[in-house]
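Feature request, filed as a ticket because there's no other form

It would be nice if the structure record came with a short human-readable summary line next to the tokens. Right now we just get the raw output. Example of a typical job, pasted below so the devs can see what we mean:
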Amino acid sequence: MQFSLNTLVLLRKRVVHLIRLIMSTLLLVIIATIALAAEGIDFDKALKIGSGKIMVIEFTDPDCPYCRKAYQYFLTRTDVTLYIFFNPLSSHQHAREKAQYILSSDDRERAYAEVMAGLFDSVSPAGITEKGKKLLEEQTAIANKLGINEVPVFMISGRIVKGFDQKKLEQLLPR
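Raw output as currently delivered:
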């Protein structure tokens, strides 16, 4: 069976269109699944920073350089309330103990600022409690339940932004 060149080109275009349609549909299903799962998040487990009217859920790692860039960016956004869940990557050797330190602190916002500023990059933090360890386990369980295995990940008004993409964030967070 032989096909003309025009027929093959048309067939290729249809296959590419079908693949794009399937990928778009799959992406929408994934986003909808995460958004629905986000409705069941226990925000009492999060580190809450700010009091702005826009809610941003962030999954972060204290040693991730892109997470630190996101931290610097959100310092400028007084219109946002951040709900931070730690999800330390295994490739960051000290991230877990830094997250535990933050979650053990009586002043978690200050501890978070210290860690994200790099104050514990060459010194181990002290004062880690069982409560902080347990809270980190609960936060990572939330990330796992949502299928989040990378950082940073942001949830804003049902939309997902993977990685620190300032342009995408600003599109979702108009001033």
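Something like this underneath would help us a lot:
The beta strands are 47-49, 54-60, 80-86, 153-156, 159-162.
The first helix runs from residue 5 to 38.
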